[in-house]
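Per your request, structure below.
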């Protein structure tokens, strides 16, 4: 599939970032870990035609879940996100958002031992407009936050290059549930595909798919792992990186830099790969090309 041409925005966004969550669903394969990606509908107002991880913004209902429905103490969920100005209720809400969006966007329920017929029931109930938590309660299914591990936090800058909105997004990793098939609704998403991180980056470089910088650079990080277990272990043994991209224009091109770059206010690197990308050739590219995104080159 040919990637769509993307437009770079320069308008300053004055609204506060919207709290949101996205989930990198992972499975092992002969090529190593694979991650689920979905192509957003071309008419979408946010990243239309772009391949993303399932996710979306926090809804009010995500914060109204009773504490006794959680499988972990709320203070544990708060500690896992490692943000000093966050409260336990909001932290728990972000976990609910991640679980809910995963189910709504690709039909995968991060819950142990769900029988196929129960999964079909859950999807059918959701399609009637019932809320995520209500569906779980009606079918006697638990809310299992333990399947999620925080990976990073991305806050869109005021000059958001690819959207007209700002987001404060928690990136989580999770092992895809066995026996469940990922779906797309042909409304919000038009394609569902499993790719190794290196495959996704090569397809991006060959203009077969379009991606935004958070996906590009996150996939580059994942190329360093040889199993889902290794990714989950890494997520649970280090604090989630805080990424606040810093964009500027240079020689008529949009450049976005990240922690560790000479133009970024944070001196410490957040990852070992490139610390900036430049919009050229109709896409965001790091200095050094595709080889800079892969541990051993293309």
């Amino acid at each position: 599939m040919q990637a769509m041409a993307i437009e770079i925005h320069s308008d300053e966004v004055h609204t506060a970032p919207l709290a949101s969550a996205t989930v990198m669903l992972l499975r092992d394969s002969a090529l190593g870990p694979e991650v689920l990606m979905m192509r957003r509908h071309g008419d979408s107002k946010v990243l239309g035609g772009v391949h993303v991880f399932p996710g979306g913004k926090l809804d009010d209902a995500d914060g109204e879940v009773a504490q006794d429905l959680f499988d972990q103490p709320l203070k544990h969920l708060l500690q896992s996100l490692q943000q000093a100005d966050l409260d336990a209720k909001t932290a728990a809400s972000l976990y609910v958002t991640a679980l809910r969006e995963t189910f709504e966007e690709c039909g995968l329920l991060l819950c142990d031992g769900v029988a196929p017929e129960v999964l079909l029931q859950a999807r059918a109930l959701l399609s009637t407009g019932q809320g995520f938590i209500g569906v779980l309660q009606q079918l006697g299914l638990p809310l299992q936050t333990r399947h999620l591990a925080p990976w990073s936090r991305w806050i869109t800058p005021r000059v958001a290059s690819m959207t007209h909105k700002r987001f404060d997004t928690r990136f989580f990793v999770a092992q895809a549930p066995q026996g469940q098939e990922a779906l797309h609704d042909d409304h919000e998403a038009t394609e569902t595909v499993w790719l190794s991180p290196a495959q996704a980056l090569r397809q991006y470089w060959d203009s077969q798919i379009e991606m935004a910088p958070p996906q590009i650079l996150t996939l580059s990080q994942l190329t360093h792992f040889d199993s889902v277990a290794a990714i989950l272990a890494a997520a649970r043994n280090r604090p989630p990186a805080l990424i606040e991209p810093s964009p500027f224009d240079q020689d008529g091109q949009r450049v976005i830099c990240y922690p560790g770059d000479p133009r970024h206010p944070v001196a410490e690197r957040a990852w070992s790969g490139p610390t900036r990308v430049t919009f050229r050739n109709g896409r965001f590219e790091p200095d050094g090309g595709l080889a800079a995104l892969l541990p051993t080159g293309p």
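The longest helix spans residues 88-106.

Regards,
D.
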